[in-house]
Design a protein that fits this description.
The protein is α/β, with parallel strands linked by helices. The protein is built from eleven helices and ten strands. β2, α2 and β3 form a beta-alpha-beta unit.
């Protein structure tokens, strides 16, 4: 375990600052204070953040930090922190590093032994969960699904047995297509919710079964307007269903063929990819099949 707090003597701190997801009133007083006091703001899009800073009369200089320059920017920012200057990291909206740039920088600053402080606040996933009326005791954040249909369907298939509430970021123009894929992967009955434009003027939450939301997203153009978080209730935890038995039989068949040619781990990994089963499920099943054949 490494614990570098409070960081090298004289070093600045990296503040990871959440910003509003649509309502400027959601910028916390502490976030304002930190954005004003830091020597530099690393922003996903400096023009976008410029609007926020102007609104609050904050004059701290900015540099861009986005997916395409994060690694090189991280080196510059670490040099800056070493000089005793503190830096605030922001993204266009919500919490940095959550389906947004920031992770590479945070990892690099942590590896350099410097202090990182969270200034928490808006996050679309958490806002949606808090009002979605689906179980929140355990949830599974999937971020954005693959944009391409085949890859998206494969991902959804691999989530079919996930018992936790799924949290998905989706672009509005794909929401109907994604809901159709969800119905195919999870069935029509799963409870679900779409939280649209949270914290904004047209904030709306649609709740219903996956099929109802899928039909609604076709007939009501508003569903596909603005920013969206999709929540889907987890897989019901029941005894093995006919579908499960069928997919387990399919997994077994693929495993038996692959295990005849490959080491167990590799066979399990490939079988999971081929069938859409979870890696650990395929691995457990491979172990079971191996033990069963040994005892025959
Ligand atoms: N870092 C952000 C956060 O903390 O939520 C997420 C950034 S991600 C690039 C943008 C996605 O978040 C959108 O496509 C949408 O799925 C979701 N999102 C952001 N703002 C939202 C809002 N006001 N209402 C609903 N969903 C929102």
């Amino acid at each position: 375990m490494t614990n570098h707090l409070p960081g090298p003597p004289g070093a600045g701190k990296l503040y990871v600052v959440a910003t509003p997801i649509g309502n400027l009133g959601d910028l916390s007083p502490r976030a304002r204070e930190v954005l004003s006091a830091c020597a530099l703001i690393a922003a996903e899009d400096t023009r976008h953040t410029g609007v926020l800073l102007k609104h609050f009369g904050i004059e701290t200089p900015q540099v861009s930090l986005h997916d395409h320059n994060e690694a090189s920017r991280a080196i510059e920012i670490i040099a800056y922190l070493s000089d005793g200057k503190s830096v605030a990291l922001v993204s266009d909206a919500g919490t940095p590093a959550i389906s947004d740039p920031g992770f590479e920088l945070v990892r690099a600053v942590a590896a350099a032994g410097m202090e990182i402080i969270a200034i928490p606040g808006p996050c679309a996933a958490i806002a949606a969960l808090s009002i979605g009326a689906l179980p929140t005791d355990r949830f599974c954040f999937e971020g954005f699904l693959p944009a391409r249909g085949a890859a998206r369907r494969l991902r959804l298939k691999s989530l079919a047995d996930e018992p936790r509430t799924l949290v998905i970021y989706e672009s509005p123009h794909r929401v109907h297509e994604t809901l159709e894929d969800c119905v195919a992967a999870f069935g029509q009955e799963r409870p679900a919710a779409i939280v649209r434009e949270a914290t904004k003027l047209h904030e709306t939450t649609y709740r219903g079964s996956l099929l109802e939301l899928c039909d609604g997203s076709k007939s009501d153009a508003d569903v596909a307007r603005g920013e969206i978080v999709l929540l889907i209730g987890g897989a019901p935890q029941t005894a093995v269903s006919a579908d499960d038995a069928e997919s387990r039989a399919g997994l077994d068949k693929v495993l038996v063929a692959l295990m005849a040619e490959l080491p167990l781990k590799q066979a399990a990994r490939l079988a999971a990819q081929i069938t859409g089963a979870r890696d650990n499920e395929a691995y457990k099943r491979a172990l079971f099949l191996k033990q069963r054949s040994a005892s025959l």
